[in-house]
Specification:
- The protein has a four-stranded parallel sheet, sandwiched between helices. It has a two-stranded antiparallel ribbon with strand order 3-4.
- It is built from six helices and six strands.
- Strand 3 and strand 4 form a beta hairpin.
- By secondary structure, it is of the alpha/beta class.
- It is 38% helix and 18% strand.
């Protein structure tokens, strides 16, 4: 589900992971959060609950690109060190290069779903990766491309896919 910038995704995910435990189900719950929404208090209430209920069936991913709608995250509401903060909440914290598919696969395969801890993956990414005029530009957090920009983006993405072989 789409939860937006109010930080509701993790609390909903915690509820889903608790429900799985209560119902004896084996499914895992995955929540993707932006780094900008880490300034919302509901995120940290959910983080405490995830630890309290030993939700090792819960994986949260922070898209850590340092940009949010109003600028650089460290200027708006500093987050670093994300690892220290979430470790203090009792979560297993892993980091990956979210721009690299092998790093993504290696990270998700390394998660220990039996350790009694919820899992946080800090995914270091580049906003707009692969589209020359979008890379590391905060405007594209909410920007709508023109038809010409769309065509350019699709061309650049197609070229990257073809280069993969």
């Amino acid at each position: 589900m789409n939860t937006g910038a109010l930080g509701h995704g993790l609390p909903i995910g915690v509820g889903m992971a608790i429900a799985a435990k209560m119902d004896g189900k084996s499914y895992k719950t995955f929540v993707v959060m932006g780094d900008g929404e880490q300034g919302e208090g509901s995120i940290y209430e959910a983080a405490m609950a995830g630890n309290m209920y030993h939700l090792d069936n819960l994986v949260a991913v922070i898209d850590r690109n340092y940009l949010q709608i109003s600028g650089n995250t460290e200027d708006v509401m500093a987050l670093d060190s994300v690892r220290d903060r979430w470790t203090a909440f009792g979560w297993e914290v892993m980091e990956m290069n979210g721009d690299d598919m092998q790093s993504i696969l290696d990270t998700f395969h390394a998660i220990d779903y039996s350790n009694g801890k919820p899992h946080l993956v800090v995914s270091r990414t580049t906003k707009g990766k692969g589209v020359s005029y979008m890379e590391n530009v905060a405007k594209w957090h909410h920007g709508v491309p023109t038809q010409e920009q769309y065509e350019q983006a699709m061309k650049e993405i197609d070229e990257r896919i073809k280069a993969l072989g």
